[in-house]
Design a protein that fits this description.
Number of strands: 0
Order of helices and strands: HHHHHHHHHHHHHHHHHHHH
Oligomer: single chain
Structural class: mainly alpha
């Protein structure tokens, strides 16, 4: 579960790193301080930007470095080079040039935004925070992605209350509310700060015991930690206040299956599927439970259905292979095990 979350988190961060500075620039109520008009209008800068837009970032950098070798003091050149290196995801060089651009023109908002994002993407959240705080103060209704990135920086520097306030603003709730604690707990769990996530989720539950999804989050955390009695208790609390939440049923079914209460697990999984048949997870768990109960034909049907929904999930193929093996179908079992191994190999390469 953690590896999958880490991959999703990385993908989300990549998208935000690419888009955020330009989204904020578009929202600003006060126009950004213009770079030097002469440099902006120069043919070489214009050509370099066109190269970047076409994805030819290295060519653009080569051209800009040639300008630097002729005249390092060319106005606007540091910003152009910093921007190009940022687009290349070469954050150390981006920081080097954007710092110079910021020192040369402390009011240039584009340089401030890109420098803050370069610090964030380059693994320097403490340096990013003051710059990103400036960015969020420039617009009447700040960009929610900006608050997400700022909150993430606060988490990485262990300023959890700062993160809570940022996420509260992101979701338009008071920073000291139960909802803000819940949102922060979810982000903390995503960043693998599990003990603090538990603390914040418990605080949310104390502030509002009937807040939807707070007991679900605690159940998820306890399930991952194999604290199964606590996980079951939290999922049951969630269903008492949120009885139509399909994911809670399949998580509860998973917990029951781990303590070998297979009939209870099957009942919870059936409810989950009836509420939401679009997720492959309850079908996979159902196949596993039915296999354990010896209902092999039904297990095969459930797992095959999961494969039609998510063909490249190695776990499903592995479980189907195990089921075929238990049924004495050696050839089918070997085929599914081989497919599971191939898919695992593909995941390792990503």
């Amino acid at each position: 579960m953690k590896y999958g979350c880490r991959f999703v988190r990385l993908a989300v961060c990549v998208v935000l790193i690419e888009a955020f500075p330009f989204l904020v620039l578009a929202q600003q109520s006060v126009p950004a301080t213009p770079a030097a008009p002469v440099a902006e209008s120069s043919a070489e800068f214009a050509q370099a930007r066109k190269l970047v837009q076409r994805g030819k970032v290295d060519e653009a950098i080569t051209q800009l470095r040639a300008m630097e070798s002729r005249d390092p003091s060319t106005k606007g050149l540091d910003l152009e080079l910093g921007t190009a290196y940022y687009k290349k995801s070469d954050y150390p060089n981006a920081i080097q040039y954007l710092k110079k651009a910021n020192e040369g023109d402390p009011e240039n908002r584009e340089a401030i935004q890109l420098l803050g994002m370069s610090y964030f993407a380059g693994g320097h959240p403490a340096d990013a925070i003051p710059l990103l705080e400036q960015v969020q103060g420039w617009v009447v209704r700040a960009n929610s992605d900006g608050y997400y990135i700022l909150g993430t920086c606060y988490i990485q520097t262990k300023n959890y209350d700062g993160a809570r306030k940022a996420f509260g603003k992101m979701f338009d709730v008071p920073g000291d509310s139960a909802a803000a604690y819940l949102f922060t707990a979810r982000m903390l769990l995503r960043q693998e700060f599990d003990p603090v996530a538990e603390e914040y989720a418990l605080k949310a539950a104390t502030l509002d015991p009937k807040l939807p999804l707070v007991h679900y989050l605690l159940g998820e955390l306890y399930l991952y930690k194999s604290r199964l009695p606590e996980a079951i208790a939290e999922f049951q609390k969630e269903l008492a206040i949120n009885p139509a939440h399909a994911a809670t049923y399949y998580k509860l079914g998973d917990a029951y299956s781990r303590i070998q209460k297979f009939d209870d697990a099957q009942r919870m999984l059936q409810r989950s599927i009836r509420l939401d048949a679009t997720s492959s997870v309850p079908f996979i768990l159902m196949g596993k439970v039915l296999q354990k109960k010896g209902d092999y034909d039904l297990a095969v049907l459930s797992l095959k259905h999961a494969i039609t929904m998510e063909p490249n999930n190695p776990t499903t193929h592995y479980l189907l292979g195990e089921t075929y093996r238990d049924m004495g179908k050696k050839q089918e079992a070997e085929s599914e095990m081989k497919r599971a191994q191939e898919l695992h190999g593909q995941e390792d390469l990503q």
